[in-house]
Every structure is written in structure tokens, then in C-alpha cells.
Design brief:
- The structure is a single chain.
- The protein is mostly helical.
- It has 2 domains: about 80 residues; about 35 residues, no CATH class.
- It has 4 helices and no strands.
- The longest helix has about 35 residues.
- The chain is elongated, with a radius of gyration of 18 Å.
- The chain binds zinc ion (ZN).
- The site of zinc ion (ZN) has 8 residues, from helix 4.
């Protein structure tokens, strides 16, 4: 799998960045949940922040899963092949989204 060696190391870098991001988000959530005091308005703001952080956390977790799967596909030699129709994924697409698991046609239908 020499062909995707560089992609693989990029993906591993992405994975580390995402892990970092998730750790930070988790810490932020913990921190903002500590003192639940003050007036209602402030609590509302806090709840909103938590929601945003949860959203960010979920997005990062989803991305992390996709990156992990992409690395696994490189290792098993399935990388760059659409998981839906089996056609090769275009190189431009892989460059833009290195963890994409579908060709552009299937992705636009599935909303991946
Ligand atoms: Zn496809």
C-alpha cells in the first residue's frame, strides 16, 4: 500500500488533532458544568454553551470514526473505492476529503 503511505500519515495526523480537540472539548464541558449558580440568564447561556460543545464533540467524534475507518481501509487495500457502488473514488475528492468512503455520486445521494 505504498501508494497511500502519505495519505495514511496525513490521516494519522488528523486523528491526533481530533483527539486533541475532543480532549479540549471534554474539558470545556466539565469546566462549564462546575459552578451551576447565578441567575437564570447565565444558566441559560451556560446550557447553550454546553449544547454547542456537545455538537462540536459529536462532530469531532464522527470525523474521528471516519478517519479511523479510512486508515483501516488503507491497511486492507480498500481505500479509494466507493463503499456503495465499488467504483474508484476520484482523486480530487480524496484530496479534498481524505476519509471519504463514497464516490461523489453515491455521497450526493446518501448525504455522506
Ligand atoms: Zn459510489
Amino acid at each position: 500500500m505504498k501508494k497511500y503511505e502519505e495519505v495514511r500519515s496525513n490521516l494519522i495526523e488528523m486523528l491526533e488533532e481530533l483527539d486533541d480537540r475532543l480532549t479540549k472539548i471534554t474539558n470545556d464541558v466539565k469546566h462549564s458544568k462546575e459552578p451551576l449558580d447565578k441567575d437564570f440568564e447565565e444558566q441559560a447561556v451556560q446550557a447553550e454553551n454546553d449544547e454547542v460543545l456537545d455538537g462540536l464533540g459529536n462532530a469531532a467524534r464522527t470525523e474521528r470514526e471516519l478517519v479511523k475507518q479510512a486508515i483501516a481501509r488503507i491497511d486492507s487495500g480498500e481505500y479509494g473505492i466507493c463503499q456503495v457502488c465499488g467504483e474508484p473514488i476520484r482523486e480530487e475528492r480524496l484530496k479534498a476529503i481524505p476519509y471519504s468512503c463514497m464516490c461523489i455520486k453515491c455521497a450526493s445521494q446518501a448525504g455522506c
